[in-house]
Amino acid sequence: MPALKRKSASINLLPSDEADASIKNRIILWLLGSFRFLVVIVELVVIVGFLSRFFLDSKNADLTDEINQKKALIQSYLPFERDFKRAQSRIATVNTFAYSQPLFSDFVAVVTKNLPSDLQLTKIDKSPNDFSVLVVGKNEQNILSFVSRLKKEQMLTNINVVSVEEVPNTNLIQALLKTNIN
Amino acid sequence: MGNQQNTQLYRRYIAQLATAYRDRSDIRMFVEMLLTSLAVFLFSVFAIRPTLVTIGGLTTEISEKQDTINTMDTKINNLIAAQDLYTKNNTTLALLDTAVPADPSIAQYIKQIESVASAHSVSVFTLNTNNIPIDTSSQVGGSEQKVTLSITFSGDYSSLLATLKDLESLRRPFLPTTNALSLDESNTNSQLFLSVTGDAPYWPIEVPQNPTQ
Asked: Pick from A39, A45, A66: which is nearest to B69 by CB?
């Protein structure tokens, strides 16, 4: 005879895995786990930012005050600065006007020093680019001698005989020389 | 009828999704990662970014102001050094008013040239100037201006050379554009001429601009 067996009822009070796996529970777990961690981190960053603003704002205000003070000081120097810059510009002008070009008197002195006695100096010219000398002599030898003497002068460079021609109605020869100064 | 069918259909789909989420661990992990990423993104955009932007802006502003203060300090130190230098050379700098006057001062300059000529017994043959403004207030201040002079002297060689040297060493400098020493033999008495053409500087005073304008 088959024995009549009663189905034994099991009682389990522990939370089941199915309950853990429900969507609601998992969302609660996520909110209390990862999300909470994220919120804490974000709050930390925001609080640090908020606190640092006190320090940074104070420093910024100090720097603004300092800039305003220094600006006032610099503005008080403005008339002096204008005078100083004007003096600097005028000194530069004096240098340009007085010392930028070789002196004509030095050139004249060098030319007359080397002029042979049998040559006559008719004209000495100074143009912005070069110097020119017009001499009159009896023969070409005198002119050549004059040129060779000038070539020995360290002050002069690029000595060129531009023209040699007879002076009309005379027996004289006229030569035009051009040169530059170091 | 159609709406009820659709509702039941969607409920079935949702039930299937919930079942799949419950049964499959990979879907669970994926959904949690998605939610976490979404939270990180939202926090980054709406909380951390504005904070960092504010702090970054303040830091940049402070850094720029610090640089400005350093530049201003350098300028103030330079101004103090310049003032010392200016005070030390005050007597020398006063000569600049003669060397580069604020107006053409042509009458004074011509007097100087004539006194140089008379000192060396040289006669002033011609003296020409360009258009010289009587009133310089209309001229732009703070820039170099010049008057052009053309003078011809006549005399003997040594006097003319001495005159030339004196002209070149006048306190108010003269920048020659052309010079010529020439012998004129057209007349019975040959004459020696020294022609000098050049510029003398002046520097009108700059009128300070009114900052309110």
From this structure: A66
